């Protein structure tokens, strides 16, 4: 029997890569009832929820293989905003200008990472083979995530594809010990910063440095067990308060 709390926790983590706003509790209700009305309806939560389930179903069918990874991305068809124009298509900017991408890797938007112009099935197979020849630990599975995300094999949905693929590599389906991103937003932001640095690294030593920093921010088993039992986020105090952001972006202070 599927543990819907654990699955909901994973979907919320998966969705956090694209601004998913529903709580774990709301996500669990959607899983329990089969009705997405339980989710936040004013953003992309419903399409992301459907993408997550479709991606998991695809990789369960095909396993941690080249076709399995491609079919994860191929199943991302529910979001007009977040999903690739050609799902499952390996990028080839030599004939498709939409495949010519660069990833901003600094907050000022001045530094960019340029992934390979053409991605081949052999590039995916190399990542799979490296995992299969490793000790296949949780750390090795997270390295699958980092390497796939850096490769940027698809037009869009690469980090989400990589997260499901890493879980498939670690074979979480029976024990439901999903690989999830940091729960704390500041930790998740720092994790993302180090992932951007991993993208920009041109030497293995630099990649290893930033990957190690990413690992330090991930929740341990006890944290995952604890968060499985958190059903609702605390509501803000209803009185009007002045919000004072630590990081300024030129906007005026808001009141809630």
Automatic annotation (TrEMBL):
<feature type="domain" description="Fido">
    <location>
        <begin position="64"/>
        <end position="213"/>
    </location>
</feature>
<dbReference type="Pfam" id="PF02661">
    <property type="entry name" value="Fic"/>
</dbReference>
<dbReference type="InterPro" id="IPR003812">
    <property type="entry name" value="Fido"/>
</dbReference>
<dbReference type="InterPro" id="IPR036597">
    <property type="entry name" value="Fido-like_dom_sf"/>
</dbReference>
<protein>
    <submittedName>
        <fullName>Fic family protein</fullName>
    </submittedName>
</protein>
């Amino acid at each position: 029997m599927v543990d819907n709390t654990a699955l909901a926790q994973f979907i919320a983590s998966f969705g956090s890569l694209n601004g998913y706003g529903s709580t774990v509790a709301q996500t669990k209700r959607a899983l329990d009832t089969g009705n997405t009305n339980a989710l936040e309806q004013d953003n992309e939560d419903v399409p992301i929820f459907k993408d997550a389930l479709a991606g998991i179903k695809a990789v369960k069918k095909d396993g941690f293989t080249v076709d399995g990874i491609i079919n994860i991305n191929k199943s991302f068809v529910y979001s007009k905003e977040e999903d690739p124009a050609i799902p499952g298509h390996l990028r080839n900017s030599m004939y498709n200008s939409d495949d010519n991408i660069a990833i901003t890797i600094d907050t000022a938007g001045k530094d960019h990472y340029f992934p390979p112009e053409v991605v081949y099935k052999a590039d995916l197979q190399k990542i799979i083979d490296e995992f299969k020849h490793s000790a296949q630990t949780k750390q090795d599975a997270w390295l699958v995530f980092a390497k796939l995300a850096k490769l940027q094999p698809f037009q869009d949905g690469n980090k989400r594809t990589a997260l499901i693929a890493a879980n498939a590599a670690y074979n979480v389906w029976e024990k439901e010990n999903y690989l999830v991103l940091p729960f704390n937003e500041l930790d998740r932001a720092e994790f993302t910063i180090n992932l951007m640095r991993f993208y920009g690294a041109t030497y293995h030593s630099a990649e290893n440095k930033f990957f190690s920093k990413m690992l330090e921010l991930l929740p341990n088993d006890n944290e995952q067990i604890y968060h499985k039992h958190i059903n609702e986020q605390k509501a803000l105090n209803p009185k009007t308060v002045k919000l004072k952001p630590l990081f300024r972006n030129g906007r005026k202070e808001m009141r809630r």
